[in-house]
Amino acid sequence: MALEIRLSGVSVDYYPGTAWQTRALAGVNLLVGENEEIALLGPGGAGKSTLLRVMAGLLAPGKGQVLVPEGGRVALALQEPQRGFFAATAWEEVAFGPENFGLGAGEVEERVRWALSAVGLPEEKWSRSPFALSGGEQRRLALAAVLSMRPRFLLLDEPAAGLDAWGKRDLGRILRELVKKTGMTLVMTGHEVDFVFPLTRRVLVLARGRLAADTTWGRLGRDPVLLEQLGLELPTALRLLRRLAEKGAPVDPGQESLEGAIEEFRKLLG
Length: 270
Ligand SMILES: Nc1ncnc2c1ncn2[C@@H]1O[C@H](COP(=O)(O)OP(=O)(O)OP(=O)(O)O)[C@@H](O)[C@H]1O
Ligand SMILES: [Mg+2]
What we know:
This protein is an alpha/beta fold. It has 10 helices and 9 strands.
């Protein structure tokens, strides 16, 4: 049976029935299948983190239905990873998921080694407290902790936030390789579209809790009005293609991928 995450008419209110009631999601319909690479965009407070929590089955909506694959197949790495740490060492933090899944010691060890190596956390830090790691290392650790579950759906909330340029480049490479090797579905938020663009194809745009668009980078490149209205930007490559096209250059800013955009520039240079 095909695995999928299905949301129908999902609404979420924080503090319902009080003076602090805040609508975070409103009537969201969404189907996410296998082998998808999805960007979740939207201004601050649009409901991105809330939507990821619902998709991970961690937050039940006040209204609507959520169907999520069972058994650790959906994993969410939080926007502020340090908030979720509880173990005494990085190793134990990553081992917690597989251990609670009832896997044998050998299998747990293999998964922890694989996950910590995959994210490139240096081995001498594996026995440290998660709180004695740098912000960038904590992000890697949080990613390893969800990878050790071998999820089929990997949900990442702002994975590049707080990383330096090298850290971002490394993380981008790690994620690309993981997706290629495992075929898992990736859903990621990110205010830095240049990081998100090369890793995704489908684009969900949230605005005030509503799904304003379920589209692709190519379509947004051709028509970025929605993004502009929300104060969001196109990836630099598509933005440059649009500028060139406006000045009469024979280029198509409707490129679905970074490779496609680079090919447009190459053609222009002859
Ligand atoms: N734990 C919470 N308690 C009460 N209100 C919350 C809580 N978390 C989020 N909200 C509110 O719900 C709305 C959606 O928040 P959410 O964190 O999902 O947005 P976001 O798109 O992830 O924003 P950002 O880009 O800043 O991370 C906002 O109005 C926010 O203030
Ligand atoms: Mg958020």
